[in-house]
């Protein structure tokens, strides 16, 4: 019964945490018994079971419970098969979604060598606009996961494609994550490539795209600032923040210090 399999998936993370804490008594139980179930359920015929399996996998990755070898040899190959060009549409949409979500939890080498080539292919998927939209919405996270060199060499050309996509929702998603993409690139790329691209979004024919671009204008401009003098930086949760100056810290030393959040890396949906 699908409900039984779904319930089983929901119990996997707490069981895995228990096994990790009791590892001397169960050294290989998770890898031998539980991990194969999670991987198998990623391709289950029932979508609720698959969703439960995906959520369980993300929790396991977040808790750092999955071995690097299992990620590269078991998880990534399944996701690459599900996101292949000839894969079923529903499976492909789910696969690209989980690829984007798990990118920030994996090592840069794993993402760049195993998942980045497929992500670039999916950005140009001409069959499903839902796939391209997921790529556009998560573009900043992928850039952050692979770093500046891979972003400028492989991802920026794809970002240009998405920013000129015929579907306005794609262009809007690009405008919303523009700051995160810009933050990953060099000052020269920001000036020579991203600035003209941003101007095209501000001048877009769709008012929803223009509105999203104007909401991202300030955050995008902030990426041109020198962090050492402006005090601007990106926190781990993706928000743009400002560090208080030493004078401010000294003047308020009796109060708990706090960072002032300016704006999220992805603007609120309209």
UniProtKB/TrEMBL annotation:
<dbReference type="InterPro" id="IPR000357">
    <property type="entry name" value="HEAT"/>
</dbReference>
<keyword id="KW-0677">Repeat</keyword>
<protein>
    <submittedName>
        <fullName>PP4R1 phosphatase</fullName>
    </submittedName>
</protein>
<feature type="region of interest" description="Disordered">
    <location>
        <begin position="244"/>
        <end position="270"/>
    </location>
</feature>
<dbReference type="GO" id="GO:0019888">
    <property type="term" value="F:protein phosphatase regulator activity"/>
</dbReference>
<dbReference type="InterPro" id="IPR011989">
    <property type="entry name" value="ARM-like"/>
</dbReference>
<feature type="repeat" description="HEAT">
    <location>
        <begin position="115"/>
        <end position="154"/>
    </location>
</feature>
<dbReference type="Pfam" id="PF02985">
    <property type="entry name" value="HEAT"/>
</dbReference>
<dbReference type="GO" id="GO:0005737">
    <property type="term" value="C:cytoplasm"/>
</dbReference>
<dbReference type="InterPro" id="IPR016024">
    <property type="entry name" value="ARM-type_fold"/>
</dbReference>
<dbReference type="InterPro" id="IPR051023">
    <property type="entry name" value="PP2A_Regulatory_Subunit_A"/>
</dbReference>
<dbReference type="InterPro" id="IPR021133">
    <property type="entry name" value="HEAT_type_2"/>
</dbReference>
């Amino acid at each position: 019964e699908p409900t039984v399999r779904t319930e089983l998936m929901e119990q996997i993370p707490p069981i895995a945490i228990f096994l990790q804490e009791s590892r001397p008594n169960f050294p290989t139980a998770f890898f031998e018994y539980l991990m194969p179930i999670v991987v198998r359920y990623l391709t289950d015929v029932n979508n609720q079971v698959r969703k439960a399996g995906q959520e369980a996998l993300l929790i396991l990755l977040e808790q750092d419970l999955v071995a690097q070898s299992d990620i590269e040899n078991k998880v990534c190959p399944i996701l690459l098969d599900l996101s292949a060009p000839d894969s079923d549409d529903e499976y492909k949409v789910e696969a690209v979604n989980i690829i984007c979500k798990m990118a920030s939890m994996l090592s840069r080498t794993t993402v760049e060598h195993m998942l980045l080539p497929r992500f670039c292919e999916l950005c140009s998927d001409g069959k499903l606009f839902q796939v391209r939209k997921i790529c556009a919405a998560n573009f900043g996270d992928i850039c952050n996961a692979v770093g500046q060199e891979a972003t400028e060499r492989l991802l920026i050309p794809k970002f240009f494609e998405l920013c000129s996509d015929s579907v306005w929702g794609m262009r809007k998603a690009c405008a919303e994550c523009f700051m995160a993409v810009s933050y990953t690139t060099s000052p020269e790329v920001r000036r020579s490539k991203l600035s003209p691209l941003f101007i095209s979004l501000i001048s877009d024919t769709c008012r929803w795209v223009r509105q999203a671009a104007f909401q991202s204008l300030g955050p995008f401009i902030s990426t041109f600032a020198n962090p050492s003098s402006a005090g601007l930086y990106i926190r781990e949760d993706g928000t743009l923040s400002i560090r208080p100056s030493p004078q401010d810290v000294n003047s308020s030393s009796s109060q708990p210090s706090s960072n002032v959040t300016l704006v999220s890396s992805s603007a609120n949906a309209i």
